[in-house]
Design a protein that fits this description.
The chain contains 17 helices and 28 strands. It is of the alpha+beta class and about 700 residues long.
């Protein structure tokens, strides 16, 4: 990548280009799209976890003034594709989980639609259901692959023999709770079919990928993709939940088709999102580590149990990070699923790596305790020379640098290794550490176009900005590739009218879209020189990754925890993360992503728990009053730093994804800090005071 004589745009701390319109409230989100005479949609959800609808009384709803339509499985259109059963809405009377959509109401206002939906009476033939995840179930099964396409199980060497021969070992079970994405903007869609009746669908949707959404809708409704347009300039957060289309997009399009020429809006309520927009599966992880007296690992094994839905399989790749994190001659990972009568799980920030680093990183802390070794030193001692499993060299691997830099910044050397000995008033104080990693991904099928226009340049690609800074960072990348000041580059994204782009997922956005923009800029300059004529344009597509190398980002998180000696209350006044994530495109947006990830990891550690009642199949705390998340009062001091990492192999920019790695090691660091504070090892997230208090009282002999 070449750079102009003036200061390079990449690496500069530039403000967000979309910041002003968001602060002023003039950024147009999906539900706010100006549409004349728009109708509003509200859904009716199943009140049982398994069975079939035997009666639907819609008369009272239809009689309400302002109601335009009530759709049920009896009168809804037949979809062209029902292969994805999550999206095959209102196609039959079967109920597969509590909260499934069984009817929808369309009315002139959202208030009337909601009132009418409450008037719909539904009768059921209820059938026995099963919604309880346990590791001892006899019906657990191995999926064919785990997300996105990893082998389900891996085996190297003989773990059992190594465990039996080990001088020091850990064999413990850890669990993570079911977690639910709760972006500020709920899942929202507006839909309009061509008033001329020519079968053209326009969808304004809060999505992490306009082109993937278009492909899905075209398949479900039997349309050519050219007859579907999806628009999404701004997203109010997604965290993965808007990466794969959910039922809201189908509902909006279906309702709009029932009202020819009239647009329909749908914004799911917070409560509805808990059943209809995916979630992170709870996990049960048996982690086994064996080591010699010098702390070198001789065995690593992670056996994972998690849940999926009977109607749609999703297998989170929880065991995958253990396959490459540390050196060991004997390794095993397995994944087993329980198919339950529950909504389908899906992506949530760092699927696989986030829950999958909790068990192993707490186990590493336990191993360090049993060895009498510093937990930072234990991790450094097990640094692999090449990627375990594949044997490929790392394109770059900055974990050791992150651990050492983080330890220095955090003041780790002053730490007394003994748990429960440091106190400030009534609070027991401790510190903990955990490592983090996330793969470098480059998605196929992304193209950018750059055009000379009015003395400047316009870069177009159907990318998404879900708050990560895409509007700004793509302009920085384009400016440097063109050799012009960043002020001369305009970026246009978030519309299927622009060149095809991959989903914003897997921390792959900038790696993928930025590579396409660089290729387009190079093609323009190669064809027209340094000053192309007005109207000149060129396109560039993403090339394949360099398969010779293993590519990952790394990090180290350090936490201070305080545990009240009498109540067991846990507070985390300080988090610090150091990351090796390639070249940082924009320090301002990067710091936001790292801090946001660590905040979400703190939320996972201390608060988040989707409580599913197995008797009803219902997430009983399905709102933000009772589903607790980290708020401002819980966050005191969070620091994010990074190493100056040069990696010429990952892409033309030298960047790695940063949106997800911040969450990955945080929960384990917090758990390890809680143990160091009070001597209580909490292996089941979230770390609530009841889990700490009983053990504190037992230790105190009360």
């Amino acid at each position: 990548m070449t750079f102009p004589d003036e200061p390079a745009a990449v690496g500069r701390d530039l403000p967000r280009r979309d910041g002003a319109v968001k602060v002023l409230g003039t950024a147009t989100y999906a539900h706010e799209t100006p549409l004349a005479d728009a109708a509003h949609l509200h859904v009716v959800q199943a009140g049982v976890a398994q069975g079939r609808v035997t009666e639907l009384d819609t008369a009272a709803a239809e009689a309400l003034d302002g109601v335009a339509a009530v759709l049920t499985h009896d009168n809804a259109e037949r979809l062209a594709s029902t292969e994805d059963r999550e999206l095959a809405v209102l196609q039959d009377a079967e109920v597969a989980f509590r909260g499934q959509v069984v009817a929808l109401v369309v009315a002139d206002s959202s208030e009337v639609a909601r009132h009418a939906a409450a008037l719909v009476r539904v009768g059921y033939e209820q059938q026995p259901h099963d919604a309880e995840l346990r590791a001892d179930r006899e019906d657990l099964y191995a999926p064919r692959r785990v997300n996105p396409d990893h082998p389900t199980d891996t085996v190297e060497g003989d773990v059992d023999a190594a465990m039996a021969a080990a001088r020091v070992s850990v064999d413990e079970t850890y669990s993570t709770a079911g977690c639910h994405n709760n972006p500020m903007e709920p899942h929202a869609t507006a839909a309009l079919w061509d008033p001329a009746g020519e079968g053209f669908l326009t969808l304004w949707d809060s999505t992490q990928g306009v082109h993937p959404t278009r492909s899905t809708l075209a398949s479900v409704f039997g349309l050519d993709e050219a007859r579907v347009r999806v628009v999404c300039p701004y997203v109010g957060g997604g965290f993965g939940s808007k990466g794969q289309p959910h039922v809201n997009v189908v509902l909006a399009a279906m309702a709009a088709r029932a009202l020819p020429g009239r647009p329909v809006r749908l914004a799911l309520t917070r409560q509805q999102m808990f059943a209809l927009t995916g979630y992170r599966t709870p996990t049960i992880q048996r982690c086994r580590l064996a080591a010699d007296r010098d702390g070198r690992l001789t065995a690593v094994a992670v056996d994972v149990v998690e849940q999926t839905s009977r109607i749609k399989e999703f297998a989170e790749q929880t065991g995958v990070p253990a396959r490459m994190m540390y050196a060991s001659p004997n390794r095993r990972t397995t994944h087993r699923l329980a198919a339950l009568d529950v909504p389908a799980p899906s992506w949530m920030r760092a699927p696989g790596e986030c829950p999958g680093m909790f068990g192993p990183e707490v186990a590493m802390d336990e191993l360090a305790e049993r060895l009498g070794m510093d937990p930072v030193e234990l991790r450094i001692r097990n640094e692999p020379a090449v990627e375990p499993g594949s044997g490929k060299p790392f394109s770059s691997r900055g974990l050791v640098g992150c651990l050492r830099e983080g330890a220095e910044r955090f003041g780790w050397s002053r730490r007394d290794p003994r748990p429960g000995v440091r106190r400030r008033g009534d609070w027991l104080v401790g510190t903990g550490v955990a490592a983090s990693t996330y793969p470098v991904s480059r998605m196929p099928k992304s193209t950018a176009t750059i055009r000379r226009e009015g003395g400047g340049y316009v870069a177009e690609i159907g990318a998404a900005d879900l708050g990560t800074g895409t509007w700004t960072t793509l302009a920085q990348i384009a400016a440097d590739a063109l050799g012009v000041p960043v002020a001369r580059v305009e970026v246009r994204i978030g519309d299927t009218d622009y060149p095809v782009a991959s989903v914003a997922g897997g921390s792959s956005g900038m790696t993928t879209w930025g590579s396409a923009v660089v290729e387009a800029a190079r093609a323009l300059r190669d064809r027209y020189g340094a000053e192309p004529p007005d109207g000149a344009q060129a396109s560039g597509s993403v090339g394949p990754p360099d398969e010779r190398y293993a590519m990952h980002a790394f990090g180290a998180q350090f936490a201070e925890a305080r545990v009240h000696a009498d109540t067991g209350e846990v507070r985390v006044p300080r988090l610090l993360g150091v990351f090796a994530a390639g070249r940082i495109i924009n320090p301002r947006t990067a710091r936001s992503q790292f801090v946001g990830g660590m905040t979400m990891g703190l939320s996972m550690a201390l608060h988040e728990n989707g409580v599913l009642d197995p008797r009803t199949g219902h997430v009983v705390n399905h709102d933000l009053a009772e589903y607790q998340i980290t708020s401002n009062a819980d966050v005191d001091r969070i620091e994010a730093h990074w190493l100056a990492e040069h990696d010429p192999h990952v892409n033309a920019m030298g960047s790695k994804g940063i949106g997800e790695i911040g969450i990955v090691g945080t929960a384990a660091a917090v758990s390890n800090a809680v143990w160091h504070a009070c001597g209580v090892r909490v292996r089941d997230l979230p770390i609530t005071l009841d889990k700490v208090l009983d053990a504190l009282e037992e230790r105190a002999g009360r």
